[in-house]
Amino acid sequence: MNKPRSLEDLRSSYRAIGKKLDNLRMDAAIMVGILPLAPGRRVWVADEIDWDDPKLDQLRETFFSLLNKHHRLEIEIGRREALRDNNYPRWLAEREAYGWLNILGDESNDWLIEHGLTTVTLTEKILRNPKFLEEVI
Fold it and tell me: How far is 45 from 22, CA to CA, in rounded Å?
């Protein structure tokens, strides 16, 4: 039977995968011509990378597999910290709030304004009433 990994071990893996993802983003940016930067450009952002570009076929599967592992670790770390800090209900409420706003995408700010909420007050509403979103939607 496997012993559960420590929180610090999970954090270490999370950081290591984050570094690998950063390196893959740099490689991808070079492969699609974002880097080196064109004259007059000072910065670039990872969102500029079109992962559907055929030039990235050799990186795509690895990148998205690592991205998925990174996300799962982030959730597990957050869950364990919330349990450790006796803050699990709030963590669940935050996940639900941000999950909903993520679904709304670009319309999330308008939805919050329309309902007189911020991300913090939305979390509080969900914490006090777990059916809040069902009732509002």
Answer: 11
Both tokens of 70, joined, read 């990174």
The answer to whether 32 touches 54, Cβ cutoff 8 Å, is: no
From CA 8, how far away is CA 40, in angstroms rounded? Answer: 42
**Packing angle, helices 88-104 and 57-84, rounded to 10:** 150
Q: Give the residue ranges of DSSP H helices in the chain.
A: 7-31, 57-84, 88-104, 108-114, 119-128, 132-136
pTM given for the model: 0.86
Mean pLDDT by 10 residues, the chain (137 residues): 90 98 98 96 96 98 98 97 98 97 97 97 98 95
Can you tell me whether residue 86 is helix, strand or coil? coil
pLDDT in tens, 28-57: 999 999 999 999 999 999 999 999 999 999
